[in-house]
Design goal:
six-stranded mixed beta sheet; elongated; four-stranded parallel beta sheet; RNA-binding; alpha/beta; 15% strand; 31 strands
Length: 982
RNA sequence: GGGCCUGUAGCUCAGCUGGUUAGAGCGCACCCCUGAUAAGGGUGAGGUCACAGGUUCGAAUCCUGUCAGGCCCA
């Protein structure tokens, strides 16, 4: 008590210090303050202003063409959207800060089943659907389309607000939407190019088919219910017994004198009428077995199960062979003498087919040993796998079933007109009678049903539109697949590089692209059919529709008469004999991937008259290798001959902290809006910038907290610099070096006037290195590297080293001393440079700081560019000084650990300097750098001196050897006495 | 089942074409400062590089397999 009373009598110097002062708060309050930034930018038309000025000659930074992939206009954005949009924003902002022109036109994918499905459900629940059933088809489709459009618009609005809240700098006032007329027209124009190239064709394909509604269904329209069916094991007699025995290596005496059978299994006996092949797994082991006197072939692994189930009494394995050995063996169809002749089948069923390929054993990898016999009955017209196998094996896509579920006239007469459901029993019965049935039983299983009618669905081949990937395009010597593979191999850059492998693998194995869907909510495929079923779809007719869609929108397809739809068509290339009188429109719409896959044309070529093509960068999740990337590449190559993108960048998927996928049902998701509300967009963005996005991205609520702490560290460093610039204005002209500045004169020091030995020159040099490294990292899309550099610079170079060292002169020097002004000048430049670098990741905070730096001037950091190198002359020995600092700190820590000296200002350091490299520096600078009162050079080892016996300056707390009692009664060092004026 | 990818300190990640005691940040522990203070600084302890084989004088790094996870197919 008495001591403090004594101290009170002494002069207090605290108010004579230049202590930090700033309006830039320590607490960011992002959640409250970010919206104000957004409002300010929006009021200042930031996006438009940037677009305009960067396009001009003042910013000759070049042009970077980025193209946003359209998210689906459905629901709120999730963590994946947040990652995707923010990464895009980092790219765009870093290009803009480099002085480049870089537009970010956001888009939305509007058409498609998920919306239509949801709308149909809502209509169904509200009872409106029943009313629609009474309408004529076109009117009904239009009613659904109107609802879908409203639905899409609603979620575009929702998502837009959410994306803007993430502070992404994009043209949200002018987005591209795949459902607007100009976009639709441009997509159809791409289609016209492909038609002209001859890569568009029509063919049957097996799809889910609702008999009740006579319509094709997508996977999402199926619901699975239990259903009782017949499971049948059927013997298909071999056509050539000798060939089968050869395959099993049986010769002479060893050969049975009976004809063996291939035993297949199916739960849809009605499809046997359309059977064209038997699939085996080439690597599985098969046996020739004698089962109750009959010789039959089936998989070894299923022999016991099947025969036991059927209650066979005598089972004997005669021989074994790999599936591979059975390939190409022939069999006799149990219900018909010959396969349907290709000539009698519709053209669309036989495009890939070759005569005489039916009733063979063929290979398929999907054959399993779970159920059945290991020999899979294959009917290309009635199964998904069967279809693919059929196309590959050049089988016709034979489909003897009408839309109403009855057999047509190509099956044995007794079945014609029969419903397939009735046929199940009848066929089974007939096979039993004819001796082909090995075994049958009824069983319950999960079976797909129409979600609306709850009726069971079947697979049925229907006519679809395709884009061929293997036929050569007209006027070219290569196919789309070949073009795409060569673009993938050479022209396109992939980030990360393995994207190339992934794309190649997918291209190599992909089948022809089925681009048609049988839905309402989409872009119609502009095909017309006459009464005979003849098709009108030519380059010119398609272009005519494209023009019309641009004028009227694709709704016209459902509201206008065919003749009016074709008003821009001159009929020059119409197919011969096409009957215009009976012409009607087709009901197919495009696969939505064709629409989004044409955005390079509908958005990018459209807006720039071709200048912005090909595009510099596509950036999406790694699932888009198969999606948007590939399905943009194919149409673009077909239409323009070049890949639409120069670089493809992919990011991984968000997973939970244990690496498991995130899903609502698992309850391990994080809500974007909640995160933004809790942490603010800048903190979320900081986290996103610091992750390595190439692979899976683990995310957890805690990670955002950690990011918040890192954010605060950076923020505090900036705040500390700002707080030491309160009395500083960087006004020209620069002061004369060495001469003290007075307010009113310029306070800024010109770079060339920096003393090379000053710590300020050193820190500016460090900034230059960091600045160019960060810019390089941004350029390489390495945001993690960039934020790491920035973080370390703020914490290490600045907070721990430089700012700690210059505190003394900032606080204690006379307010206008040359040394202090030099440091302030440096602080100003550092803050300026750092805020510009941070503007990419922390748009709000960087702008807040940039404005605080300029004391309320109405500026915007986002209109600026990165600073160039400061280039202050710097003594090359500074790295040695930093080494010396490390050595000093270590020595101080050792002393402190022994409990000898706690406060470094009570210490001096004796530092060896054998090469004399430290001697060039000011001793006070070195002392400040090491945080001690005094540094002397020389000696053999680093030595800590206890200065507690010397007087301590009551103002600066240093014991620098100049401290003595002054006229005011205080103990002050020379410098402090001067500053106080005593 | 197939293609592509991932698996390094408690956590998030660096570790180039194989070469001395495997690095960083966070967290943690201990300490300092109290004129950046719901701040700042220092020191330190943490790793059988998923597992099992193999190639090599030598492997976190190359090869094979296993396990776990992700995306896309089937």
């Amino acid at each position: 008590m008495s001591q403090s009373a004594a101290e009170n009598k002494k002069p207090s110097y605290k108010k004579t210090l230049n202590l930090p002062k700033t309006s830039f708060p320590m607490k960011a309050n992002l959640v409250q303050n970010e919206p104000a930034s957004l409002k300010r930018w929006s009021k200042g038309k930031l996006y438009d202003a940037l677009k305009e000025e960067r396009a001009g000659t003042d910013f000759a930074g070049g042009r970077f063409v980025f193209h946003d992939g359209p998210p689906y206009a459905n629901g709120s954005i999730h963590l994946g959207h947040m990652l995707n949009k923010c990464l895009k924003d980092f790219v765009v902002r870093s290009k803009v800060m480099e002085g480049m022109s870089c537009e970010y036109v956001p888009g939305w994918d509007c058409h498609g089943l998920p919306i239509e499905h949801k709308v149909m459900q809502e209509l169904s629940e509200s009872g409106k659907l029943a009313k629609l059933q009474g309408l004529e088809e076109g009117a009904r489709r239009m009613a659904v389309r109107r609802e879908c459009k409203k639905y899409a618009e609603k979620f575009i609005k929702v998502q837009r607000v959410q994306m803007e809240r993430l502070m992404t700098l994009a043209d949200y006032d002018n987005p591209y939407l795949t459902m607007v007329p100009s976009y639709e027209g441009a997509v159809v124009e791409v289609f016209a190019e492909l038609v002209e190239r001859g890569v568009v064709y029509r063919q049957l394909k097996s799809v889910h088919w609702s008999i009740a509604n006579e319509t094709a269904l997508a996977d999402a329209e199926l619901e699975y219910y239990d259903r009782e069916d017949i499971s049948v094991y059927v013997d298909f007699e071999a056509a050539d017994a000798g060939a089968v025995y050869d395959a099993f290596g049986l010769t002479g005496e060893a050969r049975p004198d009976q004809t063996p059978c291939f035993m297949i299994w199916t739960t849809t006996p009605w499809t046997l009428a359309a059977n064209l092949g038997i699939a085996v797994h080439p690597r599985f082991e098969y046996v020739l077995a004698r089962v109750d006197g009959n010789y039959t072939v089936l998989a070894e692994g299923l022999l016991e199960k099947v025969t036991k189930q059927a209650g066979a009494e005598e089972v004997e394995i005669i021989a074994k062979a790999k599936g591979e050995a059975l390939l190409e063996l022939r069999y006799k169809h149990p219900m018909r003498d010959a396969a349907p002749a290709l000539a009698e089948l519709p053209k669309v069923a036989v495009r890939h087919a070759e005569e005489g390929r039916c009733y063979r054993v063929i290979a398929a990898e999907y054959v399993t040993l779970e159920d059945g016999t290991g020999l899979v009955h294959t009917a290309p017209g009635h199964g998904s796998d069967d279809y693919i196998t059929g196309v590959r094996e050049k089988l016709p896509i034979y489909c003897p079933v009408n839309g109403d579920g009855t057999y047509d006239g190509t099956v044995p007469e007794k079945y014609t007109g029969m419903s397939v459901w009735d046929a199940n029993e009848k066929v089974t019965e007939d096979l039993r009678t004819s001796g082909h049935l090995f075994y049958s039983h009824k069983f319950m299983h999960s079976y797909p049903h129409d979600w609306r009618g709850k009726t069971p669905v079947i697979f049925r081949a229907t006519e679809q539109w395709f884009i061929t990937v293997d036929d050569k395009a007209v006027g070219r010597s290569d196919s789309l697949r070949e073009m795409a593979l060569s673009a993938t191999a050479e022209g396109v850059r992939f980030v990360p590089d393995w994207g190339r492998n992934r794309m190649r693998g997918m291209l190599e194995s992909r089948p022809d692209w089925c681009i048609s869907r049988q839905r309402s909510w989409g872009l119609p495929i502009p095909a017309f059919y006459d009464g005979e079923g003849k098709v009108l779809l030519t380059a010119a007719s398609v272009r005519a529709i494209a023009k019309l869609f641009r004028e009227e929108g694709s709704d016209a397809w459902f509201t206008m008469e065919p003749a009016d739809l074709l008003k821009h068509y001159d009929w020059g290339d119409a197919p011969e004999g096409f009957d215009r009188a009976t012409m009607r429109t087709g009901h197919d719409i495009f696969d939505v991937w064709f629409e989004s896959g044409s955005s390079w044309n509908a958005v990018m070529r459209e807006r720039s008259g071709g200048r912005d093509y090909p595009i510099d960068l596509y950036l999406e999740g790694s699932d888009q290798h198969r999606g948007w990337f590939q399905l943009s590449l194919l149409p673009a190559l077909g239409a323009t001959g070049v890949a639409p993108f120069k670089t493809v960048l992919t990011h991984g998927f968000m997973v939970d902290k244990n690496g498991q996928k995130m899903s609502k049902s698992l309850g391990n998701t994080l809500d974007v809006e909640d995160l933004v509300k809790e942490f603010g967009a800048d903190v979320c963005r900081w986290w996103l910038a610091t992750i390595s996005y190439e692979g899976d991205i683990k995310s957890d609520h805690d990670f955002f907290r950690t990011a918040g702490e890192a954010y605060r560290k950076v923020r505090n460093t900036i705040r500390f610099m700002l707080s030491n610039l309160d009395d500083f204005t960087p006004s020209p002209p620069p002061p004369t070096p060495g001469k003290d500045c007075t307010s009113g004169e310029g306070m800024c020091v010109a770079m060339r006037d920096y003393p090379a030995e000053s710590i300020d020159a050193w820190v500016l040099g460090e900034f230059d290195k960091m600045n160019s490294a960060v810019r390089e990292a941004y350029g390489a899309y390495n945001f993690r590297g960039a934020t790491e550099l920035l973080y370390n610079f703020c914490n290490d170079t600045l907070s721990a080293v430089y700012l700690a060292a210059v505190k003394d002169r900032l606080y204690c020097d006379r307010i206008d001393s040359a040394r202090r002004r030099l440091t302030q000048s440096t602080l100003w430049d550092l803050t300026d440079g750092i805020t510009r670098l941070l503007a990419v990741v922390l748009p709000h905070t960087a702008d807040e700081a940039a404005r605080a730096l300029r004391k309320g001037e109405d500026v915007c950091v986002h209109r600026m560019t990165f600073v160039d190198s400061f280039g202050a002359p710097c003594n090359e020995n500074w790295s040695k000084a930093i080494d010396a600092r490390d050595a000093a700190l270590k020595a101080l820590e050792d002393v402190r650990a022994k409990g000898e000296l706690d406060n470094p200002l009570d210490a001096g350091i004796a530092m060896p300097d054998p090469e004399g490299v430290l001697a060039v520096f000011d001793a006070v600078d070195l002392a400040d750098l090491m945080g001690v009162s005094r540094v002397t050079l020389g000696g053999a080892d680093v030595e800590v001196q206890d200065l507690r016996g010397e007087a301590r300056c009551e103002r600066s707390w240093k014991r620098d050897g100049t401290v003595r009692e002054r006229s005011d009664g205080g103990m002050l060092s020379d410098r402090d006495a001067g500053a106080v004026g005593v």
